[in-house]
Specification:
alpha/beta; single chain; about 30% helix; globular; three-stranded antiparallel beta sheet
Length: about 250
């Protein structure tokens, strides 16, 4: 499944404006699909404002909760109620209040052997394939309507770290990552590049001056995980002014 090399960079004023722009794109993608919708969420600090915004009166009534399913692009191998758990942040912020429980699809970490994230990965891959309905991804029928992404300080995205074997996975949809390149140093479970690419839109949110240097490298096409992660549909970067590379200013 070949990615679309087209990328769009959209500059916004600050993290609040970025959350608002991201919410608009979430609603737009949901509105374009009259059937069952699949949104793949992301962890880390970047999406928290978006998740809090989706819980407000102005936004939650725009979501047809019964037909939207919520997945996660990667997970830290900690219990479901641990503050470090990526899906726990989304659940606490908005999902548990409004989404049907059957429409929330966390990566299982509490029921698997903590020493074996591959077991958790296999379970989640099975859930994704059951939802999708076939064993192989079809470029004409994306797995997700929207995939939310972030960029780590080393250029990682999801839990795909530079030079890790998981980057070159072409057949599995989900893999275990035995150790992380950044804090917290716990095992991870992550969707692979082909699974993440199977979407109508991949939306990166990048904010803060500390992200400017790594974003410059990503947009320059350096061989980093976040550079290699591209949608078969649209790939969009929402970037606040503090993170915007110099060559995009003005």
């Amino acid at each position: 499944m070949a990615p679309n090399q087209q990328r769009q960079v959209i500059s916004v004023a600050d993290p609040a404006a970025m959350a608002n722009a991201a919410a608009e794109r979430v609603i737009a993608r949901i509105s374009e699909n009259a059937g069952r919708v699949a949104i793949c969420l992301t962890g880390g600090s970047s999406p928290k404002k978006l998740y809090q915004l989706l819980a407000t009166d102005a936004w939650r009534d725009k979501i047809p909760w019964r037909r939207v399913h919520w997945f996660i692009g990667d997970e830290r191998f900690v219990p479901a109620d641990d503050p470090l758990n990526n899906m726990a942040v989304a659940r606490t912020s908005f999902l548990d209040r409004y989404a049907p429980a059957t429409n929330i699809h966390p990566i299982p970490t509490s029921t698997a052997d903590p020493a074996d994230p591959d077991r958790s990965a296999a379970l989640y891959e099975g859930e994704l394939k059951s939802f999708y309905g076939t064993e192989a991804l079809d470029p004409a029928r994306p797995l997700f309507d929207l995939v939310l992404m972030g960029i780590g300080p080393d250029g990682h995205t999801a839990s795909l770290f530079p030079d890790y074997p998981a980057l070159d996975e072409t057949s599995r949809w989900v893999v275990g990552v035995p150790s992380a390149n950044v804090e917290p140093f716990v095992p991870r479970v992550t969707l692979t590049l082909p699974a993440l690419a199977s979407c109508r839109e991949m939306l990166f949110g990048v904010a803060g001056s500390e992200k400017r240097a790594i974003l410059t490298r990503v947009l320059a096409g350096e061989n980093l995980p976040a550079s290699r992660a591209q949608s078969t549909g649209e790939t969009v970067f929402l970037v606040d002014q503090a993170a915007l590379p110099e060559n995009f200013r003005g």
